[in-house]
Structures are given as C-alpha cells and as structure tokens.
Amino acid sequence: MLKIKNITANIGDITVVKDISLEINKGEIHAIVGPKKSGKSSIVHAILGNPILDIKGSILFKGKSILKKNISQRNQLGIYTTFQYLPLLEGITNLDLATAMLKAHKDQRNANQIEKEYKKLLQKLGLSSNHGHKVVNDETMTPSECKKNEVLHMILQDPELIVLDELDHDVEEDELEIFATTIKEFLTKKKSAIVISHNKQFLDILNPTHVHVVVNGGIVEQGEIDLYKRITENGYPQLS
Amino acid sequence: MAIHSFLKAERGDPDWQFSPEDYIGKEFKIIDASMVEIEENDGDRVVLRQNPTEKDLLAKHLRVNLQKNSTLDLMILNEVDENLQQVFLYDIHLKPGANLSLGMFVKDGKLNKHILQVFLEDGASFAGYGLITNAAGGDSEVITKIIHDGQESASSQLFMGLAGKESQTVFQSTVVAEPNAHASQIGIESSNMIIEEGGRCYAKPDIYLNAEYCKSSQGAEISSIGEEKLGYLESKGIPEDIARDMLISRFRNQVINLIQQDNIRDEVKELYVD
To answer: Counting Cβ atoms within 10 Å, is residue B91 exposed (0-12), middle (13-18) or buried (19+)?
Structure first.
C-alpha cells in the first residue's frame, strides 16, 4: 500500500531523515520507535507532505508517487495523519470541521446518515452529546477529548492508511483503553497503520506486526513485536 | 505613525479630549456628523453606515444621548478607502437605567480611528462588540474609555481584530469605576488574529476600580493564522484556500453572529466577502 524507498529529508542544510525505506502492506501495523528527537516525526511529515521538507527518494501510495501531492491531496487519497500537538481553531466547532472534511472528500452519505454515524461515534468514544458544538481543541475539551476527536474524524473519513504521531500522548490513563481499542477495532477492517508512541500499554493494545527502531534519522533495527519488548527491557540498540 | 497614534490615545488628558490641531502632527477638522437621542422609556434601532469619500482629514463627531430607562440598538457599519484618513469621535451618555447595545464593524482605511467615550449613570448598561479589520496596508483602531459613574452599572466589550498584509489593528480600552459606582460589572475581551505577513494587532484592556463590590474581567489574545492551523485542516483533506477562508470567516463570525437582526448580519457578512 505504502512504499517508501531510500528517502532522505532535509530542512535547509540539516538532514532529518537518512535513507529510509519502508513497505507497509494492507492490514499491517508498523510501529516506529526511538528516542526523542531521533527523526520519527520527520518520517511522518515526509509522508504527510509538509512543504518544509526537501525530500529525495520515492514515496508510492497504491503504486503511484505522492511526492508532488500536497497535504490535502494525500489525505484525499486515503492517508490520514494526526499528531501529538493539536492546534486550537478559534470559531470552528468540531461539527464544522467534520462537515468541511467530509465535503472536501465528496462524501456520498446524506446529512442524516452522517449525523447518525457521528452520534454513534460520540457514544462509542465516550464523548458528550454537545461535543460537536465545542470549538476544536479549545480549553473546554480535555486532552483525551481532543485526541478522541482525531479518532472520530479518522473513522468518519475511513482512510486506508493511518499515521499516528504520538496521538496517545496526554490521553488520560483511564481513557487509554477505550481510545486504543477503538483504533484497534478500526484497523481490523484490513486497514494499515504507522504508529509512533512511547506508551507500552498503547502499543500492546495495537499489537504491531512490524517494529522499526529509528536513531539519528535512520532505521537501525527492524523486527516484530519481540523487538519492542526487548527495547522496553534493554533500551535502544545504539544508545545502550 | 501608527504606533504614535496608539500611544497618543493611551496618554490622553484626563477628560480624554481629542486635540485635532496636535494630532499626529496633522490637523483634523472636527465636524458634527449627527446626534442620536432616545427619549425617556423609549427604544429604537439605528444603523449608521460610514463610507467616507472626503479626502480631507476629518474628525466626525457623533453624540448619543439615552434618557432614563431608554434602549438603543446601534449598529455602525464602517468601510474606509485605503487612501483616506478619518477619525470618528463618539460621546455617549447613558442616563439611569438606559441600555445601549453597540455593534461596531470597522474596515480598512489608511487611518480609520474610532474613539468612544461612554458615560454610565445608575443602573445603565453598555454592551459593545465588533470587528476591527485592516487589509489595506493601513491602521484601523477602536479606542474606548468607559466611565461608570453610577451604582450597579454594567459594561461589556468584545472586540476582535484581523490584520492583513502590512496592516494594523488596535483595540484599546480603559474602563473606570468611579467611587460611586458600587456593585458595577465590567468585562473587556479582545481576540485578534494576524492573517498575513507584516500584519500587526495591538490589544490593551485596562480596568480601574475605585468603587466597592464591583465584578470585573478582562482578557486579550493575539494569534496568527499560522502554518500549523492550515496544515492541520489540510491534513483532514481540506484544500489550503478553503482552509484559510474557513479559519478567517469562522473567527470573524464569532462576533458577527452576535448581531440580532438577520438583514444587518447578512449585510455585515457581505462587507467582509473578499
């Protein structure tokens, strides 16, 4: 589904991603782990299409290059990317955002079907019935609500590949299970995922099929879930 | 010039008198624009449309008097050409129990400055709200001084600013509760957004309480439309131009939606269609 081949990404003169190759197939969950500032988020921004990065190499999604596509075009192709830090959008409610997002995707469902699905998701994620009227990521929303909102939009959008860059960060401990199991349930529909997280509980629930260890902008080790278990016990390979 | 005018208004003399002969080194000619007077126990709605065309440096003086227990819903819709410099002065007097709702929508101009002085007696209330925008490379300003001179009087203000390329908006408010203004309520809120490079927003709310049992709140914030917000919306599949429009229009609609009359609200929305 996603094939990244020998990409190197620079911001000005600084190389933030060094010659990385990854292949994510349908139904696979890839965890990218590594110490802070190791370049994990830069890989996500390369997939996202952040124009700040100067990228060499190739990124193919469903067999076609996406390097010349901008952020919104990549999302419309079926790549849903979301982040640790979410900006406040003054005056824009959660429902406004969901409506604009589905309109941009030319969603075929009618207003009643969308409303029904929205309400169902609010209930599933334990969000209040007035959630839609709250301003996106403002102070009336708890950190967990902000992150659940991202999951809600993800399910509404129904992408083929999700890229979660420490989305679990700040999710309260008692909310983490419902948060993670909702994502896991979504992924069982033959979806693919790239997940960056420092949270063992979150990764245990998602149960990644592949693990990549990133240090200093490059992949230093690859394996399956056992690799992550070894890292949590012994630390990162080149730092221990 | 713009910064100087901001400081000048802040400094002002105790009675906040406008001194045209000495104003930013230029002479503004004061003209009496009009007078709005509401009789005792009466009520009215007034819409003032300000679209000046005079190239002279004019300071237009509007007086608003509300007699006891009267109400006025006053809307000021202002749009000034990018080459014009105009000052609007408002002397507003609210007698006991009078109630003024003032919507003020200020757009563009090389200098487009609105100076309000509001005087509240016992039980009078003033609710001011509006939008201050400039995308013409100039300076749009709303400067208010509100004097609570009676007990249980109330004032609330919500002014939002939007500054475009190389343009500036200013909201500055001083609210004073005089010693006889017991149990008065005061609120000032200002939210501002810089939407293009070189834009500047200033917001300065000040409250001076000289009376007892008053309640007050104040707040001001300035943000930028920023790549982060645009990128976030784009990551949901919303194209950049639509994302930008969405951020700007929803921001200003927070205050436009406070307008009660549908036709005026539509007119104001139309005023800001790019």
So the answer is: middle
The list of chain A residues with pLDDT below 50 reads 240
CB spacing of B237 vs A87 below 8 angstroms: no
Taking only the tens place, the pLDDT of each residue in B14-49 is 344 444 444 555 666 777 778 899 999 999 999 999
CB atoms within 10 A of CB A74: 24
Which of B235, B242, B250 is opposite residue A92, by nearest beta carbon? B250
List all residues 6 or more positions away from A239 whose beta carbon is below 8 Å from its beta carbon. Answer: A35, A215
The pTM is what?
Answer: 0.82
- Using a CB-CB cut-off of 8 Å, the residues of chain A touching B237 are 72, 75-76, 101, 104-105, 157
The reply to whether A240 falls in a domain is no
Degrees to nearest 5, angle at CA A89 with B203 and B225 = 60
Residue in chain A closest to B257 (alpha carbons) equals A91
CA distance A184 to A209: 12
Asked if B254 and A157 come within 8 Å (Cβ–Cβ), the reply is no
Question: A50 with A84: CB under 8 angstroms?
Answer: no
B232 at A interface, C-beta within 8 A: yes
Test A71 with B226 for CB contact under 8 angstroms.
Answer: no
Say if strands A210-215 and A218-223 run parallel, antiparallel, or are unpaired.
Answer: antiparallel
Q: Taking the CB of residue B54, how many other CB atoms lie within 10 A of it?
A: 11
| B266 Cβ contact partners less than 8 Å away, ≥ 6 residues apart | none
Question: What is the extent of the structural domain holding A106?
Answer: 2-234
Is A42 inside a domain boundary? yes
Nearest to B186 by CA among B147, B222, B160, B220: B147
Q: Is A196 a domain residue?
A: yes
Residue A184 within any structural domain of the chain: yes
* Domain total in chain A: 1
Cβ burial A112-127 (10 Å sphere, 16+ → b, else e): eebeebbeebbebbeb
CATH number, domain of A9, equals 3.40.50.300
